[in-house]
Amino acid sequence: MTNRPNIYAAAPIDRASLRRKDEDWLTEAWLAPASRVLPIWQTKSFVAGPEDAPRAVLLPAEGLDAVPIFLGLMNGGLMDGTPVFAVDLSMVEDPDALPALRGHGRFEDLRATGPLMPEGEAALCAYARGMVWWNARHRFCGVCGSPAATAEGGHVRLCTNPGCATHHFPRTDPAVIMLVHDGGDRAVLGRQSRFPPGMHSVLAGFLEPGESLEDTVAREVFEEVGLTVTDIRYRSSQPWPFPSSLMLGFTARATSFDIDTGNDELESARWFDRDFLRNHTPDETFRLARPDSIAHRLIREWMAEG
Fold first, then answer.
1. What backbone phi and psi angles, to 5 degrees, belong to 182?
2. Which cofactor(s) are needed, names only (predicted)?
3. I need a labelling partner for 189 at 20 to 30 A (CA). Which of 62, 208, 217, 287 fits?
4. Burial level of 83, CB count in 10 A (0-12/13-18/19+)?
5. How many CB atoms lie within 10 A of CB 257?
């Protein structure tokens, strides 16, 4: 297990959760000239700078007419203690027409820009994206169907039906992602049909009710490639706000070795030698998972161990 955070983790922010119930403080913070806002438009993040080195843009709140979502207080650097909010501008047809945004940056898909950004800024954008997405998709109570209002700085959706008044909280879907090895110099990689040409990755799947994480690892490996595993070890985790997952990374040692993809969960899967993974130049026939993913990290760490 390693303590180095994955991309999109360890945002440089104090979430200041005790402030979320203080409506007066939130209002004052939103109106303060020093406060800053991360705009989101149709799930895209607001960035500036070169295409190969984008930076997150934090703007003053003035001129941004949207419901603020309190992210927290910046932690460290010149902006230490600065309140930071996210806003959803998806209702605007052309965000470039907004004077508050014009000339300050552009909206880009975080999945494309994240690997190129400073890690703290990518993590902050991921946090903002996740909160905006959750609020946008929980506008109605899941119990009675009544409209739900924003509460506690955007971290609660409150049913407006007095007879229900259910509090809804942001959800994160836990998923396991695991590198299966043979205890020696081989590891299993597979690909789904939706992957870019040549891309191979480790196995993954969502936790089901009543399962431990280890149960899920064993079940998903068997379902996807027909292998049994033991020696399941946790490695690290990664928030993955596309839209709302938490990836929990593991390694597992196979106790059977004949791969079977007959359940059609994968397009293909096979054993790969460590030397091949180290020496192959990425091309249209074979490449690893995207570099900002925990999948890529699991493979790289295993490659370095032998």
1. -100, 10
2. Mg(2+)
3. 208
4. buried
5. 11
